[in-house]
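=== Given protein ===
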Amino acid sequence: KEIALNIPASIQSPSGLPQEGVLSVQVGEHLWPELGARLGYLLDYPHGCVEQTTSSTLPLLAARDILPRIGVSRFSDEELKNKIRAGLLRLNSMKTPSGGLAYWPGGYEPNVYGTAYAMRAVVLAKKGNIAIPPGLLEGMESYLSTHLLSTYVEPEVRAAIAQSLAELGSLKPAHTDALFDRLGELSVFGAASQALAFAALP
């Protein structure tokens, strides 16, 4: 296919001579030529701890929505869902009797922030109609709910818990006053998480 380009006369070479002007055109499959390669890396990324597993699963969840809209067909929806399910199963292997997730598979001590972070991926998967391992989300919700207002949990982590519970739709409006009272202890990122949590309330 031939595409005619109108080259402005003002385009000049570094020497300033119009007759030596050069125009470079890059053509790719889509607007982000490197996106496919980066997503391929995520598909093959070896899941590790709870944070690594979540950090590789969240972009795959977003890709299911983004890729069709920008015309990328390299990865099928089923391929993405299979990788997301693998991430969910690995998170499930970190589940402790308390419902919280340990930092590594088979661990017994739950990690509060890791559980809050991972819950965001689990909630998005549920919203995307991807099957969640039985009891995983319920256990995480119960565990995080008991730690939301705990004085033993850092304010930044409480803000992350609030955001995750809000995304699930289980943050109680009655808890917002206590969370807001600690706003001064939050970094800009913690304050942003808390603001997103409050904005999600009905």
User: Anything to note?
Assistant: Residues 50-70 form the longest helix (21 residues).
